[in-house]
Amino acid sequence: MAWILLVAAGILEVVWSYFMKKSEGFSLLAPTSITLVTMVASFALLSVSMKTLPLGTAYTIWTGIGAVGAFIVGIFALGEAATPMRIVAALFIVAGIVMMKLSNS
């Protein structure tokens, strides 16, 4: 169950980072509200998952899901560049997440 909560927390991190970008510096009410609600939910789920998962594992996977997810959303929803170097960097993050999960098996 902790892993499911951790993945959900990571996905919510992607959601809040996207809406933070859309809030234009917290000047738009709807995106700002979505940012704050999903941010609190993400932290809450991360906190619950940390009751059973090691800190280093949980935090690394949470931030990794957020980083790679934001990278993908940036490319597909915001038109950001998908350069070879950025793609390789994202693959390194994914490799780190997989290794962290395997080290906990």
From TrEMBL:
Keywords: Cell membrane, Membrane, Transmembrane, Transmembrane helix, Transport. It holds the Pfam family Multi_Drug_Res. It comes from the Bacteria. It is found in: Cell membrane. This is Guanidinium exporter. The chain crosses the membrane at residues 27-46, 58-79, 85-102. It is a multi-pass membrane protein. PANTHER family: GUANIDINIUM EXPORTER, SMR FAMILY PROTON-DEPENDENT DRUG EFFLUX TRANSPORTER SUGE. The keyword Membrane applies.
